[in-house]
Amino acid sequence: MEIPVAKNKIYETFDQAVAGIPDGSTIMFPGFGGIGSPQNLIAALHRLGAKNLTGVSNGHGGTDGRVDVGTLIEAGQMRKMICAFTAPTHPSRVTPFAKLYADGEIEAELVPQGTLAERIRCAGAGIGGFFTPTSVGTELAEGKEHREINGRTYVLEYPMPADYAFIRAWKADTMGNLQFRMAQRNFNPIMAMAATITIVEVENDIAAPGDLDPDQIQTPGIYVDRIVRIPEDGIWPEVAGGPSGTGRTFA
User: Fold this and answer.
1) Which CATH superfamily hosts domain 14-128+159-229?
2) Model-level pTM greater than 0.85?
3) CA–CA gap between residue 64 and residue 38 (Å, rounded)
4) Where are the alpha helices (DSSP H) in 6-63?
5) Where are the domains of the chain?
6) In angstroms, rounded to a whole number, what is the distance separating the alpha carbons of residues 87 and 223?
7) Residues 82-141: pLDDT tens digits?
8) What are the b/e assignments for 178-205, b being 16+ CB within 10 Å?
9) Which residues, 6 or more positions from 56, have their beta carbon under 8 angstroms from its beta carbon?
């Protein structure tokens, strides 16, 4: 049986893939401590110069030169970060976010990590909201609907959609079906579902329809709009002494 081929989703360069992203967009950035993050797409967005952006991410970027969302924050392109962590990893480290936040030059919305993940998932699944006990009794629950369920207090949280999601995948085919590897499975799959436009950087050669095992597809191609193959001279995260979670090992 002939497999139907989707519209052309393949872009030759990262700059082409992010072209047209306007100022003021809300963009999702997956990854955990830089690993599994779409570093090449972030670098392209930095070159594009789009500003006044809102970022949705587990963290707010590091200080170690890694090309993550911290690059955009340091460049002044981000207006607001919605994230689970606003503090640096150590008191001795000052991140671009921490400095700009202290100076009042960037906004922050703190969301507990599990709540953040579920709000993103709900946006992709078409769920209108959910109740969670997380944050009850804290400032994060102020102004939110509370409800008693089976003797326990919960707060209502709403889905978190975005205009764009930048995704890093291990494998993809021309229809946009994606496979993730190791740390890429953190926020990548749910963010790919939650955005109006999903842009993917992929580590291996883009396969023909039907070449990837359908049982190993974590994100169906219907959620994917643009795909770019990472070239050999592209950005690869480095982790000393072990797998990077992206298909390469660095000593």
Assistant:
1) Glutaconate Coenzyme A-transferase (3.40.1080.10)
2) yes
3) 16
4) 14-18, 39-48
5) 14-128+159-229
6) 33
7) 999 887 767 777 788 888 988 999 999 999 999 999 999 999 999 999 999 999 999 999
8) bbbbebbbbbbbbbbbbbeebbbbbbee
9) 26, 27, 28, 29, 82, 83, 116, 120, 160, 162, 191
